[in-house]
Amino acid sequence: MLEEQRKNKWQTMFIIKYVLLFLLLSRFVASQQEDVGFTYNGFRGVNMSLDCLAQITENGLLMLVNTTLSQVGHAFYPQPICFMNSSSGNVFSFSTTFIFALFSEFATLGGPGIVFVISPSRRFPGALPSSYLGLFNTTNIGYSSNHVVGVELDTFQNTQFNDIDDNHVGIDINGLRSVQAASASYFSDQENRRVNLNLYSGRPMQLWVEYDGTEKQLNVTLAPTTVPAKPTKPLLSFNIDLSRYMVDPMFVGFSSSTSGIKTPQYVLGWSFKINGQAKELCLSQLPKLPRMGPKTRPRIFTIGFPVIGASLVFMSIVIIQFIVARKRKFAEVLEDWELEYGPHRFKYKDLYIATKGFHDKELLGIGGFGKVYKGVLHTSKVEVAVKRVSHDSTQGVREFIAEIISMGKLRHRNIVTLLGYCRRKGELLLVYDFMPNGSLDKFLFDQSTTLSWNQRFQIIKNVASALLYLHEEWEQVVVHRDIKSSNVMLDREMNGRLGDFGLAKLYDHGGDPKTTHVVGTFGYLAPEFATTGKANPSVDVFAFGVFLLEVACGRRPIDPQASEECIELVDWVISIWNSGKILEAVDPKLEMNNEVEEMELVLKLGLLCSQSDPIARPCMRQVVQYLKGEIPQPDLPFLTSENTGEASFWCPYFSRGKTPPSSIAHSLLSGGR
């Protein structure tokens, strides 16, 4: 009996010791996790979680992207980090700093930039490159379920995300509309003023991101590495409780993406600390950046020795003579397509003077393949718009040639006139009539301006007339393939004129369009185009139908910020039509007076043209007749109780393999109005 009591006593003591040891170990592990920190003066031998384009170079640079292809790069600390105090539920204080360098092959044009990211995952399936920075796509951007906190170094101004300029730092929460942003600069303590910085200059810069868990304040500070210490005043200071947006655990790292130009992006060193100040990076230990551009000339060539000077002068004269002779020899040589299709060829010097050296003050906008500048021709004083295509892009050259071929002979009052072009070395330029009122989308979606219904209806008829000319009345069939409000320009009298023929395809009347790559703008693409790849006039009719709804409703075809039932414009208008209240879809900025019949006609035509069945769509001649009132308004082919079968309207859900919302599917199949 005594021996059994002694045995139980030892067992009890053993259990108590085991529990105490377990608690001590748990407390130790928790304290280690809470105070996690690391410092990388270069990344050689560092275990980083790399994805897509991201890689570590031989000398220890973390290279996020380095290509003109539209891809992404992710680099994350491989282990998850606990950011939240389990007892209070608050996010711990943390501090991080890193040194980066962003390059661009163009002095005045940057790429998408990079983002320091705190995310629940290191993977971002479906994330898009370019302006989406490899973090989001059109379906998930802006949602609270993302739990993503980021600090962006953005070198491209995207109006979709309300970017303040093309050179800024912003704090992002679950999306890319920065909750606070500022142009890149730092506070100079010596000069007691702010000094501007160019993020994509290729010079190393340091960023500090610090969160005070007690004060609930996030500070972001930027400075060049030539500044001896962190500036006393941050660039951004934002009061925010991160516990509302973060979960546990989280990953920390970087995300970036590419666009149409080459923008290498590097991180040289990185330091991070939970519950403390991140250790300073040692500049002398950081890896060297690769040389961008030509090598620095040896000093000896700048010394004015008589023999060397005479040799250089002689060599310069020989080289100049060779260049002048070669330029004269090939000045009048044109390619075959230029001889057959080319309109007037401008001199580069004349366009350079007309645009004041392609100055930023003359910039009208940035398109998919380059910038558009306003200019005044020196001799005729005619105002023009000069489109400058990215010269080193194979696709840019192809689109440039396509636009010249498409527009070189087109003459119609509702098509932007191509006045001529210019080719100089790698420079590709197109010269158009200047449209003083810009593009239609600015009037539809800018809250400070609007168009009356009469103006909108006139613009619709203008675009319809232009498409009829392209499809049936010109010597060949021209399929535009990119009908949308941003490609409709407005002249001085607010007439609509169709422009941007960079994606156009031509073929003979009665011929069969060849299969081609699927191009265009999401939201305007006909569903059969994605499967057949054949660009025929019906593809333009579909896009024109979406354009009609866009103009009448004052809404974009895809609005990720809208409620679920209103994201796709076509779906939304269909549901309103089925409810018997079609006029509720009209832009609320319009006052409905005597134009009700016209509004209903435009909405009907929009739905009729945007059907999934290309055979059921009208041709542009019928559309023009409807708009002129030469034939009665169309009857929409919705199913009724007397006519069973599948609904013929396309919903964008089908194109992504989704099932349409039950309310819309039910109204389509039950024979709504």
Report a brief summary of the structure.
The chain has 673 residues and is of the alpha+beta class.
How does this model look, in words?
The structure is a single chain. With 673 residues, this protein is α+β, with helices and mostly antiparallel strands. Helices cover 27% and strands 21% of the residues. The chain folds into three domains: 35-279, Sandwich (Jelly Rolls), CATH 2.60.120; 338-433, Phosphorylase Kinase, domain 1 (2-Layer Sandwich); 440-669, Transferase(Phosphotransferase) domain 1 (Transferase(Phosphotransferase), domain 1). Strand 22 (418-424) and strand 23 form a beta hairpin. The protein is globular and about 105 Å long.
CATH A-level architecture of the largest domain: Sandwich
Which structural class fits the helix and strand makeup? alpha+beta
Mean of residue pLDDT values: 82
The count of β-strands is 27
SSE topology:
Elements: H1 2-34, E1 37-40, E2 49-52, E3 55-56, E4 62-65, E5 72-76, E6 94-102, E7 114-119, E8 149-154, E9 168-173, E10 180-183, E11 185-188, E12 193-196, E13 205-212, E14 217-224, E15 236-239, E16 251-257, E17 265-274, H2 306-330, H3 336-341, E18 344-345, H4 348-354, E19 363-367, E20 370-376, E21 383-389, H5 394-407, E22 418-424, E23 427-433, H6 440-445, H7 453-473, E24 477-479, E25 488-490, E26 496-498, E27 505-507, H8 527-532, H9 537-553, H10 569-578, H11 596-609, H12 620-628, H13 652-655, H14 662-669
Parallel strand pairs: 18-22
Antiparallel strand pairs: 1-17, 2-5, 3-4, 4-17, 5-16, 6-13, 6-17, 7-8, 7-16, 8-9, 9-10, 11-12, 13-14, 14-15, 19-20, 20-21, 21-23, 22-23, 24-27, 25-26
